Amino acid sequence: MYSVMFVCLGNICRSPMAEAVFRAKIRERGLESQVRVASAGTGNWHIGKPPHEGTRKILDRHEISWDGLTASCITEEDGEKFDLIVAMDRRNESDIRAVIGEDARAEVIRFLSLVPELGVEDVPDPFFTGNFEEVYEMVTAGCERLAEQVEHRVR
């Protein structure tokens, strides 16, 4: 089974949105039994909380389930448990690498490296910007591209 973890700062806005959207893309392709999806934050202050209201509203508007999503914090073990860890921004990427260590099995990439045509390197944090729609559009584009890549890997 191929495994993907999305990581942002608090695991209440960007990474749970990406987890929910990516699960939907995987389900559309009939790959649920072949791909495990999770998300986490680099900070621990929201552990156990549901996604941010803005994330829940945008997912509801697009009829994407966020059921069962609760914030967690990335651990060193995640570097061994996951094949791919996807950072939402440059700072997250640096923090992930510090937590999982240099010898971790997981490949670590920045989310928007999946869609370089957007011309942006970091997914902005809507916790601070309030722009959940913009983030949803970026997340959807990146998750579509990642789902295509993962489908080729597991089929």
List the SSEs and their pairings.
Elements lengths: L1 E7 L5 H15 L6 E7 L11 H9 L16 H4 L2 E4 L2 H11 L6 E4 L15 H4 L2 H23 L1
Parallel strand pairs: 1-2, 1-3, 3-4
Helix pairs in contact: 1-6
Give structural notes.
The chain contains 6 helices and 4 strands; from the N terminus they run βαβααβαβαα. Helix 4 (90-100) links the parallel strand 3 and strand 4 (107-110). The model has no long low-confidence stretch (mean pLDDT 98). Helix 1 (14-28) packs across helix 6. By secondary structure, the chain is an alpha/beta fold. It has a 4-stranded parallel β-sheet with strand order 2-1-3-4.
Please bin the fraction of helical residues: 40-55%
- Regions with little confidence, pLDDT below 50 for 5+ residues: none
Number of domains: 1
What would the CATH topology be? Rossmann fold
C-alpha Rg, in Å?
Answer: 14 Å
**Which strand order spans the largest sheet, edge to edge or round the barrel?**
2-1-3-4
Strand content is 5-15%
Q: CATH architecture, please?
A: 3-Layer(aba) Sandwich
Instruction: Tell me the series of helices and strands, N- to C-terminal.
Output: EHEHHEHEHH
What structural class should be given to the helix and strand makeup?
Answer: alpha/beta
Distance between the termini: 11 Å
**Biggest β-sheet, characterized?**
4 strands, parallel
What's the name of the CATH homologous superfamily? Response regulator
Q: Output the number of helix runs.
A: 6
Give the total of beta strands.
4
On the 0 to 100 scale, the average pLDDT is 98
Indicate the CATH class. Answer: Alpha Beta
